[in-house]
Design goal:
Elements lengths: L7 E2 L5 E3 L2 E2 H8 L3 E5 H16 L6 E5 L6 H9 L3 E4 L2 H9 L7 E3 L6 H9 L4 E4 L2 H14 L4 E7 L21 E2 L4 H8 L7 E6 L9 H22 L5 E3 L17 H18 L6 E4 L3 H4 L3 E13 L3 E6 L8 H5 L6 E2 L9 E6 L8 E8 L7 E5 L19 E6 L2 E6 L4 H5 L14
Parallel strand pairs: 4-20, 5-6, 5-13, 6-7, 7-8, 8-9, 9-10, 9-11, 11-12, 12-13, 15-17
Antiparallel strand pairs: 1-2, 2-3, 4-14, 14-15, 14-19, 16-19, 17-18, 20-21
The structure holds pyridoxal-5'-phosphate.
């Protein structure tokens, strides 16, 4: 297993993160437990700022909060000077409750409700990223009635196919997101802005997908989007100050993944943007990027307790843990792969091939197929790294499993930032109608 961020193996042969012994964390907070490495989160933010913003002070790094959303996490983003993407009233609510600077919030989504748009307008979020013609009309009339003039970007579908899982590809023409570029709908949308005097058009946005490894895809997309800016200038005379190129930067989950560096990413994007600005004599736009997974993914590690171990001779050895698809749906949903280690046996050789399964009532509830681990026993702590993104955020209460706790570790201290759900939490919203109450059957 690759050791990320501040991970080390201590003198007891235990995995340590942020100076905390993970076996002790499991004892103190219970399992499943998601451990977030604060130093790695901050270090990654600084790499992004260093590469994208220091050399181009108008640029902005904006964290896509759908990857993992929590008020404590929003505070860290604010401290690091990173903006925030939200895609729903709920994500916006978290940002507001954590006093996130509203001017650095971007509101996305393909089906924002009038109530959500009104909430965004009344809190004066920095930008609304408008997805479709319906939304343009609705937003203009809401803005008129509230007497405001929000800054808007238009989400464009550039017709780029990123090489990633089809569920996490978003740039191709047949997508639910955005105004299509190749068929002229995107340009028509820009022209329609003349009919919407309450909208302050600032530029265009695209997001080609997630877990993208080819920096050429980013360079290619930046060029297509820049050429669209040039076309907008030609057809309408409007010069856009903002070019938002979305997120999707791929990360390491297993040795099959070979991520580029953030510097390579910045070079692919900014070299292309600068070249286009020169070629078309266009003022250098402020470039926005929206990393989600790459800021939080590697910084999260899930700790589980090993329970049942079942061997089917000649077939497979199953190691079951006290979580699974309820806290991490990615293996079942995307065939996502992970590494793992036994946190209390870090110095023992990985000599047994096992498959790690969860405790949900689905055969598909597998976390990892065929992984080499030391001999596992009931009570061992299994650590699955790189579970910071799209795990807790996608967690469910399937089988009435309670959502795990989340701790933020740093320099030997662990702060609980999300409590583990209790059985009372699970039943809190349920009601028994009077006619079904108090009857002895
Ligand atoms: C999901 C999303 C992102 C972040 O994607 P990652 O793969 O987590 O970096 C950025 N922008 C938009 C609009 C998104 O929908």
């Amino acid at each position: 297993m690759k050791l990320h961020g501040t991970m080390t193996v201590n003198s007891r042969g235990h995995l340590e993160i942020g100076g905390c012994d993970t076996v002790s964390l499991a004892g103190e907070f219970g399992t499943p437990l998601i451990v977030l490495d604060e130093a790695l989160i901050r270090e990654t933010c600084r790499q992004y700022i260093e590469a994208f913003v220091k050399p181009y002070p108008g640029n902005q790094v904006v964290y896509a909060s759908k990857a993992f959303s929590s008020p404590a996490f929003c505070r860290i983003m604010a401290e690091e000077g990173v903006g925030l993407d939200v895609v729903s009233g709920g994500e916006l609510y978290f940002a507001i409750m954590s006093h996130f600077p509203a001017k650095n919030i971007f509101f996305h989504g393909n089906n924002k409700s009038p109530a959500e748009l009104e909430m965004a307008l009344s809190h004066q979020v920095g930008y609304i990223v408008v997805d479709n013609a319906d939304e343009l009309k609705m937003l203009n009339s809401l803005a008129a009635s509230l007497g405001v003039k929000p800054a808007v970007l238009l989400r464009i579908t550039p017709g780029v196919e990123a090489h990633t899982h089809e569920y996490i590809q978003t740039g191709q023409i047949d997508s639910k997101f955005g105004f299509t570029l190749p068929n002229g709908q995107a340009l028509a949308a820009v022209k329609s802005l003349a009919d919407y005097p309450c909208l302050d058009f600032k530029g265009v946005h695209c997001h080609i997908g997630s877990q993208v490894f080819e920096m050429d895809s980013y360079a290619h997309t930046a060029r297509i989007m820049f050429e669209f800016l040039v076309q907008i200038r030609q057809e309408t005379g409007i010069v856009c100050p903002i070019l938002n190129l979305g997120g999707g930067f791929g990360i390491y989950y297993t040795a099959e993944d070979r991520p580029a560096t953030i510097e390579d990413y910045a070079a692919a994007v900014m070299d292309t943007v600068k070249e286009c600005a020169g070629k078309y004599n266009y003022p250098l736009p402020r470039v926005i990027i929206e990393p989600g997974r790459s800021i939080i993914g590697n910084a999260g590690t899930t700790l589980y307790t090993v329970g049942t171990i079942k061997t089917i001779p000649g077939f497979r050895k199953y190691v079951a843990v006290d979580g699974g698809m309820a806290d991490n749906i990615r293996p079942s949903l995307y065939q996502a792969k992970y590494e793992a280690a036994i946190a209390n046996k870090m110095n023992l050789p990985a000599e047994v091939t096992v498959s790690v399964t969860g405790k949900c009532c689905e055969s598909g509830d597998m976390l990892i197929w065929d992984i080499e681990l030391p001999q596992a026993e009931r009570g061992d702590i299994l650590a699955v790294p790189s579970t910071g993104a799209y795990s807790y955020a996608m967690a469910s209460n399937y089988n009435n499993l309670a959502r795990p706790a989340v701790v933020l570790v740093r320099e030997g201290k662990a702060d609980l930032i999300i409590e583990r759900e209790s059985y009372e939490d699970l039943i809190r919203k349920h009601k028994i109608p009077a006619r079904l109450q108090g009857r002895n059957l």
